[in-house]
């Protein structure tokens, strides 16, 4: 389908917006009037910029407060419309979005509204222009697509049709299935937006919280399916108002926007038609819907790769040894080391003049790549590229494996390792492996043979949560979980998890707007996203932590008061509490399930490991314990050289 | 009255919170349980810290999910309570806050709830502890103070009383006047919070948007009056949950918190009693309510002072000359210059080794002080100090005026100039004045003899809006106006105006969370708050701008498209539009009134001047034109060396 975006959905001045839309390969744009009014050039110049960029101007918008008014006002409104028609002629667009009049003064007489819309359509027809009429979710007498369609039918002018916006219908939980029965050629335009469910009024919801399809929680896919069932064959056009997106760079927003439409096309392709329930839209051949390979079946992480220089490698090696990791081997052609235990593999990349070193220089000691073990790496790569990711090719030595990779939004890499190449650990073929210790059947020094990565938590810079949610959802088919808020002693942290359907890959994404939180300090110090912790599932957390302690691994201390409360809350006996307290093992219960988990102290105030034991089907992340973990980390950081930044606000205005 | 604050209202770890509360001279604290659970010391150690700081532990809180449960659960809940009583004994506090059980399973039978609360009270009584029972605004069967009071009466235990929280009552617009009829000794505790009105559910409202009294929009004063009418003589205690406050430094939050209570005491003092409507609470001698001098009667700004070094002074002098300002004189003993026109006075402070130079070094070229002209400067100063402001004493030469000053939250100064000392310009006595040009009756080069400062707009760092609102409201008696959101091309700007009752002093405060906006760039570059623009009221904006243009003053250019829209919207004739367009004069209408205004280009990308002409009683700030002004400023800044910061997010993940 033709893809368009409203300029209001991108930050900056009009030329930046248009360049960003073109760079993301949009076919067209809606010109939002305020963007034009702020543009120092003429409408003709805006038209030329679009033409040069290969962008069609799909629509000019919005025109408000027109219909349902007294006769004298109608004349003034028609004059006003003529001025806008002038602008449209200069812009070279023939479609105007008119929003149903939401003024309290506007008449609720639909015949009057229809009559006046007919007049407007006639004026537009003289100029060969068309009107797309839209209902706003916070409208009074007119606020649904049915009412607008009713008015359009009463007005009965060929150049007057309806504009549909997924948000205006979904946000008020209005029925959208009936849209399939509108004749498709009477739908002049389809605007799309998603949003999280937020407890507020539709206007506030719309103005501040819209997001791109796939980033929110609404059924945009179903809505588009109904519109396609009508026979609509115009563009799909994004219209987002969001505090976050208004502040995000236009270029990256446009890339997210395009990814959301590509993902949406695929979702709709697999959706059964409302008119022909036995067939999907793909089978009906409706429009040209993207058909990428399906999301990869993921089996976990083959390895996590850390970018390090020599001194950092020494310290990190020591840190990992204390955690029970063993050296396994060295890369055949690169200065790269492999460590592991149980099913977990860690790669230390010491190559100079490499991607990893560049990442290290920019981000400090951190994970620069992960490799996902999957059934069909070639298909996973093809899907990622179809959904707008950039393929990255590394240097491959003779007889070495080619492991395809794409770039994540922060510049780190996501490898796809094909399990047909020797299982999840098949990549070890590129390494000269050390001899196993005598009698050792597997790497089971501490965490046990069953140890595997349960989830990875990442820290994102402010404003990038939705971007990453869409990246993982679209490329990998991970399902976003509800938004949550965690309490750090120095501010709130917004968090959202994504999970593979088989739960073998789970990410927890965290973002903090303020510099004092544990998360914010990581961003401030290292200028970007990164892996914050790696949670390893073990069979017996208590036994494991005991072993780690015996090896000298410092674990994160949890205050005794926490355990007193745990005892009061769950009636756990003193001896158990005392053991947990000594080890820093925390507990959370949810229904029948429970989680026991403990944390290592951090490496370079940057990342750490969690050990978790899920019991009785527990599927969460121990969020109830997050405030205590974050406080303990803040406490640890304050005593190890990373206190919260001093805000100059504190230096003035003492009362004393 | 005794003043207390809940530890949850302050950021950081428990010791930081307690130190901040003590530094702000609170008498006591409520210990929020999670703060204790995160504290690495014992409850006894927390008790000693409080004792050392002179803080009384007024209450331990909260205890939840207790009453209205099945018998077996009741036994478990009583056990849980005993564990918390242990903690209270160690803390040395005798009051526990119990929140009415909001669980969906909890019984709606108030007799059952009362019976179980009586059991809890009996257990507490054995330990000489008391229970304060509170309703939560999002409760189910129990969610109002009347229901809680009903249960307390049915339970009928002397150590069981009610806890009242202004938020829980005001947020659901419940009647609070009836509180006066509760016997005061049955009210065990009064918690206070304000909040802006936000369209959301009470729980979200409470968790994220609470603010200190005077910062929000609720009638906390009336609520406290009703509680005092009951005969309550316990502490007033603040309990705030706010995303902003969680991230703000505890020290400055505690100072704001104390200021809010001092201000509130004064408000209540002047409030008529509900029980004795002919008298105010002050006349009734209730508690010991603060009685500072009333807010000063303000006559405008005597002068605005800029901190400059030599080279900056040369450029700023030139900038001001182009704006029509004339040199008036030099300070008798300091390297300080005075410029003026009409009623406006600008001071350039070049003193080395001074407050101003220190401010300049920290903030760059910016206004470091303002002087407010008022009726009684000594009283204004006494009020400011009573409300927690710090008096600042400058160097005064022989026979020079002493102008009292206090420090604003960003370290800049607010002087109070007493108009009895020769009117608003009486401070000029400290200056050696230049001879007036021959025949000149007044300084009227350009802006006219009537030119005066209409309002001053300031830029605040993120998270400080409420702090400043309270500063101006409490010290100066300015009335806060509703919160507004402005659209900069690179993100949203939150804005709130405050106005003196006579409107001779008005401030517009602006804050942006993101670095790319015009406001955010100012903060990022200069590390703090500052005057963003000075709006000067003139009689005829069009004539004034013409004169400025003739002098060579570059005004901010507004795109022609804006004027086309203005014509379409208001039906203004072409010749007028053309004149305005050439001059950059903008128009906004509101009801009968209208504003014509224009902007200078900025000085050092830092501050600028606005010229405004208010017509027919217009009282706003032209907010509808703000997006165009902000876009024009962003456009100007991009071409003059201050583009938005490049976000690294843009450098990766290109689709192409």
Automatic annotation (TrEMBL), chains A, B:
Mg(2+) binds at residues 455, 533, 610. Pathway: Aromatic compound metabolism; 3,4-dihydroxybenzoate biosynthesis. Its EC number is 4.2.1.118. Its cofactor is a divalent metal cation. Residues 300-419, 452-602 form the VOC domain. Keywords: Isomerase, Lyase, Metal-binding, Pyruvate. It catalyses: 3-dehydroshikimate = 3,4-dihydroxybenzoate + H2O. InterPro entries: DSD, Glyas_Bleomycin-R_OHBP_Dase, Glyas_Fos-R_dOase_dom, IolE/XylAMocC-like, VOC_core, Xyl_isomerase-like_sf, Xyl_isomerase-like_TIM-brl. The keyword Kinase does not apply. This is 3-dehydroshikimate dehydratase. It comes from Massilia litorea.
